[in-house]
Structure formats: structure tokens, C-alpha cells
Amino acid sequence: MQRPSQVFYQPRTNLDFTGLYDKLRSNYGLTAHSKANVTDELTEIQTEIEDSEAELYRLQSHIAFLQSHRRHLDEYRDCLHSLISPIRKLPNELLLCIFEHACSMNHLTSGHIQSMPALAISGVCSHWRGLSRTSPQLWSRIRVYLTMMHPDHVVTDLLQYYVDLSQESPLSFEVLGEKLETLDSCQSTVCTTVGACSDRWKELTVSQPTFFKALTAHNPTHFPVLEELSISSFAFRLSGSLDRFQDAPKLHSLSISLFPLSKLPKSLFPWNQLNVLTICSYTEELKYLLEGPCNVTDLHFCEWADGWFKKTTTFPLLASSIQTMSLSVAASTQQESESLVDVIFSSMTCPNLTSLYIDRADIDDSYERIWPRSLIHDFLSRSACKLTTLSIKSIPLADSNIIDILTRLPSLLHLTIEDNMDFGGPITPQLIQSLNAFRYNGRSLIPSILAPRLRSLSLGFSTFNDTVNSALVEMVSSRQYPGGVTYDTETSKPYLRSVVFRFPHRQVVPEVNFLPLKYHEKAGLRVVIFEGACVLNI
């Protein structure tokens, strides 16, 4: 492309300031210049000023044009780059898989486009907009906080937009918010819109009884695609409240804070369909559900202020179907309620239990309950289960309690332990050293008995120092030693395949603290180190 020729402004007046200053100092009286001569020169200068000013305007206009043209060139260049962008080569099917992965819940009341991934994706370009609008599943996961709504119709219109684009796809709704006695017109409209789709509910979470009452105002009784139901306790203080869902052939997961367990035998709810049950109470009546023809494999207990837990006075409940159990414990409950951990470990027998998770429901409060070591011993002995997964998070235990449990779990494959960042926890150099594959008895190395077949280890630390650092490196290295009890002779590889360490902020220098682990990583061990929320490279 040929560049245009440059045009320069040529001055016409000789600006001889030295000669002019001399004249100003000497030409007085009869020797002064005539007015006619000066006037002619002034006229010429004024003409040139006007010409130079016009040239200046022309140049400024040309600069503005060039700046605008430069912006257009940049935009054109970016568009050309987009033509060869690798993402354009992805087939629509793969692109939709990425969209599906990116689109979790769409929080319609957040006021931020980032919280509405389906809407954000549809605004990138016409191609993505067309793809997203032909993918109803992207628009089918919706969350609304009714107590965060503004008194206008933006959210109601947006909700209807999502429902329309979801077409006939099954819907996942979360209707959340603080307790309200009555709903305003916008809140009622939202509940009416959600309730009108009851035959398409796939997952339903409701936090308040007022919301649930508005959702079911048209008295729906048929839920052909409903799979997961999570709802507050207050809506179900009467035993028949759950009977509404008796015609839900696909329902397999129920999360409910409180239910009159004594009414279980008369309930029409399809309890025998459940695979997952989350509940915030435990009494002897639970045996009607778990000891009968039960399909529940995942059982979750959550301790909270209004929950009720009471030990059984008869023989422990035999829950043969339970494979996964989680306990979310709290520092305080009702005055006469017993500790969740005490109740469960003394009142249940789970011979097929493979995974046990214990964490905190109120992580910000100090937890001072006594750890029931003897009850846990009895539970493990009574159940005779082969536990493969153990996770204990934010429980301020002594390290000896963890070591004691591990001595009773030779089948353990996956172990997660996390300190409470404010109140400490069981992760100490002694605990880490107890996980070494070998111990020195004064004369020679002998195999350790703690979790010899451990495959994955995740530790979350409240503090970090050189003692912890050296203990970690030594422990991990010991489990990579060929020929030991932690080495799989069939695959010729160590059992330990993955370690994840989580540390507080600004305490770890991985290239210094964990350099030996880099060599294990290159040999096949998965090593992940978090500092706060950031992943560090070794």
C-alpha cells in the first residue's frame, strides 16, 4: 500500500526579532518608521496567522481522523485474529460441553452478570448467543433470593426469560431468603412462575415455609422428573406435609431439617426410593426407615440450633444399606439434645460403611465437646466395616485421637484432615511422623501399621514451620520407597498417588520447603500445594 505524500506548512514571514528589537530601542522621533510600512507588514502577518491557523485546524482534523482510523485498524486486526482463533475450530458439540460445565446456578437476584453465566455467555457473540439459545439446559438452573429483590419487575421478567429459553428441559430451582410472613407482589409473581413449572422440577431447594406455600398454591401432586428435594423444617411440622410428593417416581434425594420421625410408619412419602438422606435429628423412630426395606446409601446428619439428637435406649440401629455417612457438628444445640457424634456412634451399626465425613456446621464458633474415643472404638468394632475414606475437618482434636482412629483402619485409602484456622486442630509433627511408612526402633527400620495402603492424602494446616515442613517431606518420601508395605508389588508403584497440602497465606516457599517433592512429582506422584486459595508451583 503506497503511503500518501506528506504536506508541510511553509512560513512566509522572516521573524527577525533581533533587528526588530534594535529598531524598537533606537527609532524615535523623526527617525521612526512610517505607519504605512508597518501597516503593510502587519497585514501580511495577519494573513499568515489566519493561514497558519487554518493549517493547524486541518492538521488537528487529520490527527483526529488518524486516531479514529487507528482504533478501527486495531478493531479490524482483532477481528482478523478472531478468524484464526483456536476456539473457532471447536465443534459445536464440544463448545456446548464447555458451556454446560461453566453454567452452574444462575443467580438472578445478584445484579451481576457474572452470577448469571448463561446470560453472560449469550452476550459474547452472535454464534455463542445462537448456541446458548438452542441449549435449554444452560437456562434451567436458577437461584433467586426473594429477600434481595428490588421492588420492580426486572427479576420477574428475567425469570420468565430463563424459563422460556429452558423450553421443556427439567429445571433446578433454589428459592432462598430470610423468613417472611407475607410476600409482596413481585415475590409472589416469582413463586407463581416457579410453581407453574412443578411438572418440570428436577431439583428443588426452598428455605422458608412462606415460599413453599406460595410455590404449591395451585396444589401440585405429580412430579414426574423430580430427583432431589431440599426444604426447610418449618414447612413439615405436620406429618402429612411430605405426602404431596408421593407421586415422584424419580425422587432419590431428600434434605430436610426436621420431620416428626414418629409419624414415619404412616407417611405416604416414597421413603423406599431414597438413596440420599440429609436430616437434622435422630430418634429411635429412624429405625422404621433404615431397618426396613431401605435403599439409602448416603446418610447425612447436620447438628443445628433447633435440631434434636437422642441416644437409643435399645440395641443400636442396624443400617446395613449405609455406605457413606457425614456428620456436620455444631458447638451448641437445644439444651436437652445430646451431641451428634455421641448419638450416632453409640446408636448405629453400619457394617457396609466405606466413607465417613466429619466437619463443622458452625466453623466460626469454638467447639469444646469431648471427643468420644470409646464410642468410636465400639462403633468400628461393632460395625466391622472396611472404611476406605475418612475426612475430618475443622474439629479441634488432639493428634492422639486421630492416630488412635487410624490404627483401627487398615483398609483406609483416602484421608483428609484439616485444622480449624482459628482454633487449631490435630495436625502436628507427631501426627505426620506417625504416617511414615517406616519407624526406627533404635536398631533398624520397621514397617508402620498406620494406613499402609493409603492412596491419597489431603492436609489443611492452621500453622506452618520448619518442623512441619521436614516431617511432611520425610513422610511422603517414606511412602515412595520400593519394596515396603506402602508399595504395590503388583503394579510396581507406591500406593500413595496424590498429596494435597493447604497452608495459610504467606508462609510457604514451595521451591525451598518442598523441593524434594518435585522429584516425586516427576516420578508420578500428584502434588498440589495451596496457599490460601492459590495453587503454588514447586
Tally of DSSP β-strands:
24
Low-confidence stretches: none
Q: Tally the helices: what do you get? A: 16
Q: Kindly report how far apart the N and C termini lie.
A: 51 Å
Whole-number average pLDDT? 84
- Which word captures the global form? extended
Strand order of the largest sheet: 1-2-3-4-5-6-7-9-12-14-15-16-19-22-23-24
The biggest beta sheet is recorded as:
16 strands, mixed
From the alpha-carbon coordinates, what is the Rg to the nearest angstrom?
A: 37 Å
Helix content: 25-40%
Structural class: alpha/beta
Strand content: 15-25%
Structural account:
Helix 7 crosses helix 8 (209-215). It contains 16 helices and 24 strands. By secondary structure, it is α/β, with parallel strands linked by helices. The mean pLDDT is 84. 33% of the residues lie in helices and 18% in strands. It is extended, with a radius of gyration of 37 Å. A 16-stranded mixed beta sheet has the order 1-2-3-4-5-6-7-9-12-14-15-16-19-22-23-24. Strands 8-10 form a two-stranded parallel ribbon. Residues 88-143 form the F-box domain. Residues 35-62 form a coiled coil. Keywords: Coiled coil.
